[in-house]
Amino acid sequence: MQDLQKTGRGIVARxxxxxxxxxYRRLWGPAMLSSLGWAxxxxxxxxxxxxxxxxxxxxxxxxxxxxxxxxCMIVHGLGLGGSVRxxxxxxxxxxxxxxxxxxQVLWLALACSVATAVLGSVFLTPLLSALGTTPADGAxxxxxxxxxxVLVVSTPFFYLSNLFNxxxxxxxxxxxxxxxxxxxxxxxxxxxxxxxxxLRMGTRGAALSTTLGQIVTLSIYLPGFFRRGHVLRxxxxxxxxxxxxxxxxxxxxxxxxxxxxxxxxxxxxNNLLIRLGGETGxxxxxxxxxxxxxxxxxxxxTARAMQPVLSTYLGEHNAAGRQRVLRLGFGxxxxxxxxxxxxxxxxxxxxxxxxxVQGAAAQALxxxxxxIYGVGAFFAGLSILVCxxxxxxxxxxxxFLLETLRGAALLLPLTLLCAQLGISGFWWLFPATEAGAxxxxxxxxxxxxxxVRDLPPERVFQRTIPSSAKDLGAVxxxxxxxxxxxxxxxxxxxxxxxxxxELGLAVLQHGFAGRADGYIQITASALEEGGFELxxxxxxxxxxxxxxxxxxxxxxxxxxxxxxxxxxxTAAKDFFYRRYQGFNTLxxxx
Length: 590
Known about the structure:
Elements: E1 3-7, E2 10-14, H1 20-53, H2 55-63, H3 65-91, H4 95-122, H5 124-131, H6 139-153, H7 155-170, H8 174-198, H9 202-221, H10 242-316, H11 319-346, H12 349-355, H13 360-392, H14 396-409, H15 411-419, H16 422-425, H17 429-444, E3 460-466, H18 469-485, H19 490-511, E4 519-526, E5 532-538, H20 557-571, E6 574-580, E7 583-589
Antiparallel strand pairs: 1-2, 3-4, 4-5, 5-7, 6-7
């Protein structure tokens, strides 16, 4: 319902936020499909290997998880830190700088992945020993070795597919990112069945299917780097890339450090569980880990949908939009995550059947562990969403604190403590850790300690108006008063209001083309260094006002409008247009 505000110059229609919801939903669907694909792919190895090799195969997959986690820490650190910076730069209209930042991160990812592949292959046997298995273990050692050999060689494919997914979503190619992930993971699942169950290739076949799935994913992603109207391109960075690339990694590690903590946790757990419950204990732990993929990846998908819009709004100084994204993310994430948790609580036998857990004793242990874990998974999902919000808004310390609490500071001591309860009580470490981490974080964050760094609210002017010239005129009057309040020079105030008026009229005339149901969002920021930044977003058809040929002025009313755009274009310090998430977005600096 419209809220009408009377001013001395007319009536300004404040129509609420018409853009955040559609932008978020466009990202959420593909992100959830991607996450579901990753979950099913990660689970496929355990399902197929469990059906083929039983608890020995499940234990082997559990033992290699630390290697998987260290790779995840690096590539997700690069992807998170790099894509947040990319989206913020795009939100500020700095497209060329954003493209270069991607290339810098890409080349660091290639260097790290190749080094990991070479070192892992050369030192394979010592690595297996560090993971907890030696040749004396017989079948368990052979199964772990076969999986790990393929895993380390395919590291570059793993790095590139994950990195490309982050950047494609932030470049407005979320449909391609989702399709590549889903198709690649479906191929992984199909190949898993064929190579492991039909050809009997064991854990080597499971690892090979994952590698081939990554290659299929990359082949689908590659066209996204050649699309017209998009910024991402492959090539060499033009400037020195080591320092900015490592800065992106450092920023992303605030969240991706959780994988390092998980690696330490897996090493500790595997050794404890072998002593507490033998091979069965490790196998049940692997069932929990794969169940966590299914649950927590839904929260991760929601987090991936939130991040591009949050980072874009951070660049635009749109605090109200960020709060709207946060509410949408928590609502959708908690809804889907809780539904799946409830299903597993009511029917844990389904997970046992899926992973091939047989025998009354093993199933009883798995039932109890799954139900206890479900309680912890609810709080874990909340933590994932909180960390994503702070990471996307460049408050890395908040993300780092929460991830450290739940991944190390509380988790590791509680793991040792719960081990004293025996194999049946060991699983209580999950709800104790996750609920405790959120409680401690809430206490530390009191008083706005981790508030997002942005312009003060009074320095940001924002209105959303219907497609009406009358409403546009009323807003320019308000905007002029806003500029004067922040000590704009007469020339600055004139060009700010003129820019909004000329661009708005161009959108009304050429973009909406007579539509009466359109909306324009105007955001003006009084920058602390003295300039003004304007962001205009509309739901018209694809239309760039600066693309009009202003050199064809011939004296008609229409051409007079073109002449006004030419004046704006000349006076602007910088300007940038892009079609993002179904809307036209113009960034102009005065």
